[in-house]
Amino acid sequence: MEARSWRIQMECTPDGETNTPSLQFPATIGKPDKAALRMPVDYVEAVINHDISQVDGVEKNPARVRLLLRSLARHIATMASVQTILDDVESTETTISAVTFSAYYNALRRIFVVEDMPAWSPSLRSKTAIRTSPKRHLVDPAIATAVMRAKPEAVLHDFEYFGFLFEALCARDIRVYAQRADGDVFHYRDKSGLEADMIVQLRDGRWGAIEVKLGQKQIEEAAVNLLKLKEKIDTAKMREPSFLLILTGGQYAFRRKDSVLVVPVGCLKD
């Protein structure tokens, strides 16, 4: 598998089970549930009440910081605009200007709380307009659940939101592996609605496209989208993809007849 040359190995345990990464910080692994759930909350409270003001020496309003983080948590793994986030914050009858948003957002970026995913601009066969807005991401989905004070059972009852958190979890892990291979991670979306949740691109021009699907029923649609994207790429100007991959929450990894890989996120291994 060519992906192995990128130091990304996709392996399952011998019995076919996968160890899917938690929505919590690595330090919480092995801890009792109560302690594990408390650690991200304590981290978020430290960010709100201390860290964000220390980064540039400018005092920040904790109430506004909390509302901003909650809005970012609600819009995680989406292309929510600045105006959308401002409107969301102001729906609580708390005003925040675009200037204040920029100052707070940059502070959160500097202390590695937010990490947006930039849009990918490939060479295409046709002049298709590409969306250039970044995807909103927190550095770890545990921050989203912590600031929302969402219990595991509550997240599982909101399957749509859980899907966004799962994509954020996958993005976090893929970024780690890509950075070790000296690569970057982007997202793709064009005016036709065709998208790829992640594009991994290395410095030497190799790239691969990834779709994230929590449920098995969405695999066929994801494969069709990845193959459509492959056909749009102008291979006279850039390489064909090294892989087309669907990350899932399932248990088994396999290669489809169309060469699209279907891999549980728990099978990713450095």
Number of DSSP helical runs: 8
> Structural class, please?
alpha/beta
Main sheet overview: 6 strands, mixed
- Secondary-structure element order, as H and E? EHHHHHHHEEEHEEEE
The count of β-strands is 8
* Beta-strand residue percentage: 5-15%
Computed over alpha carbons, the radius of gyration is 19 Å
Task: Please outline what is shown here.
This protein is α/β, with parallel strands linked by helices.
Describe the structure.
By secondary structure, the protein is α/β, with parallel strands linked by helices. The protein has one domain (22-269). 39% of the residues lie in helices and 14% in strands. The protein contains eight helices and eight strands; from the N terminus they run E-H-H-H-H-H-H-H-E-E-E-H-E-E-E-E. The strands form two sheets. The protein has a six-stranded mixed sheet, with helices on both faces. A two-stranded antiparallel sheet has the order 1-8. A hairpin with a 5-residue loop joins strand 6 (254-255) and strand 7 (261-264).
List its traits.
270 residues; 6-stranded mixed sheet; 8 helices; 39% helix
Topology:
Blueprint: E1 9-10, H1 33-54, H2 62-74, H3 82-90, H4 98-110, H5 141-147, H6 152-157, H7 159-180, E2 183-189, E3 195-202, E4 207-213, H8 219-232, E5 243-248, E6 254-255, E7 261-264, E8 268-269
Parallel strand pairs: 4-5, 5-7
Antiparallel strand pairs: 1-8, 2-3, 3-4, 6-7
Helix pairs in contact: 1-5, 2-3, 2-5
